[in-house]
DNA sequence: GGGCGATATTTCGCATGCTAAAGAATCCCC
DNA sequence: GGGGATTCTTTAGCATGCGAAATATCGCCC
């Protein structure tokens, strides 16, 4: 189950480093792209999501951008202040707030041609088909394992995250 | 150069999703681990770095945790307030501030047995040697390509990040 | 039909995290 | 050896980002 040997330790470090690098770099680029349209990174993400899905509740939006509701409340506050989106109370369930792009918000979204993460996509295009397939398979296995560890850790939340 | 075909588009999405998942999850776990010692995530990281390297300048520390100096200034402010570290002006170069663990900080560091990212390491241990090697190779190729794209983009910073 | 637990959103307080600009100290070059 | 460019750190202002508690509403169950 654990064929990992000492000599591979550095490899492990490097894999972690690389994943962190790829993540932070893609985020930085999203931010830079957003800046050209006078938006912040998360605001660009929200605008692009609403462009294709108009009419999303705050909770649904939070889930999509992997943030807490309270975080998204703040983001939407500022976007509403800037006239990019509007809040609309749902008529079916008055607890729910629907977020919708304003014409101004839609214009800005349309004016930004590339998706966030486009850079990532371009980089992945330099890999061969087989490499993409391998990468996907291995990362999938990795994240499945992580999910298992987390589940076990949630059940016995007292040690570190990795004791055998 | 770009053998990526339409049918692989979903694979690309999934790879990106997985990398984001792995990154955010490892961060969340670091934070949870830190909480048990009354620390925040970055504070745990700093304490663990200083445990092995005592005597690091603020800039060096920033570089290690991939954050801006101004961010680290704030983190160190709060850690100093809590009595975890002290600032010492360097005698050789009086512009430099050395950060050092206090006995209290050292105790806390010693009391936390696992490294941040340990969960990651445990998950990687479920891969075979060959998989680790492949993953490392492919991620390396990927990040090299990203670096190239960034460099090109920095030279011509006007379009999106990925135009061909 | 009234109360009670569950769900959706907001508020509050705090800790990152960034950029730009200010403040110190050093370097370097004439 | 003096001054300007450079480097190290901090300050200021803002935008996430989180958890916990407060609010509002809904659903259900008796």
Could you please describe the fold and organization of this structure?
The structure is a homodimer of 164-residue chains. Chain A is mostly helical and 164 residues long. Chain A has two domains: 8-114, Winged helix-like DNA-binding domain superfamily/Winged helix DNA-binding domain (Arc Repressor Mutant, subunit A, Orthogonal Bundle), CATH 1.10.10; 127-164, no CATH class. Chain A has helices at residues 9-35, 41-53, 58-64, 69-81, 103-111, 118-124, 129-155, and strands at residues 56-57, 85-89, 97-101. Chain A has a three-stranded antiparallel β-sheet. In chain A, a hairpin with a 7-residue loop joins strand 2 (85-89) and strand 3 (97-101). In chain A, helix 1 packs across helix 2 (41-53), helix 2 packs across helix 5 (103-111) and helix 3 (58-64) packs across helix 4 (69-81). The N and C termini of chain A lie close together (11 Å). Chains A and B meet through helix 1, helix 6 and helix 7 of A and helix 1, helix 6 and helix 7 of B. Chain A binds a DNA duplex (30 and 30 nucleotides) through residues 31, 40-43, 57-59, 67-75, 77-78, 93-97.
Annotate the secondary structure layout.
The structure is a homodimer of 164-residue chains.
Chain A: H1 9-35, H2 41-53, E1 56-57, H3 58-64, H4 69-81, E2 85-89, E3 97-101, H5 103-111, H6 118-124, H7 129-155
Helix pairs in contact in A: 1-2, 2-5, 3-4
The structure holds a DNA duplex (30 and 30 nucleotides).
């Amino acid at each position: 189950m654990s064929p990992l040997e000492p000599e591979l330790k550095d490899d492990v470090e490097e894999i972690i480093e690389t994943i962190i690098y790829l993540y932070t770099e893609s985020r930085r680029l999203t931010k830079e792209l957003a800046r050209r349209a006078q938006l912040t990174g998360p605001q660009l993400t929200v605008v692009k999501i609403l462009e294709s899905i108009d009419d999303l509740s705050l909770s649904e939006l939070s889930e999509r951008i992997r943030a807490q509701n309270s975080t998204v409340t703040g983001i939407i506050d500022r976007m509403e202040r800037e006239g990019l989106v509007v809040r609309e109370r749902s008529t079916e369930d008055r607890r729910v707030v629907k977020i919708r792009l304003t014409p101004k918000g839609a214009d800005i979204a349309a004016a930004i041609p590339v998706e966030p993460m486009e850079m990532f996509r371009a980089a992945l295009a330099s890999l061969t088909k087989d490499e993409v397939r391998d990468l996907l398979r291995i990362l999938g296995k990795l994240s499945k394992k992580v999910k298992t560890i987390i589940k076990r850790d949630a059940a016995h939340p007292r040690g570190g995250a990795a004791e055998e």
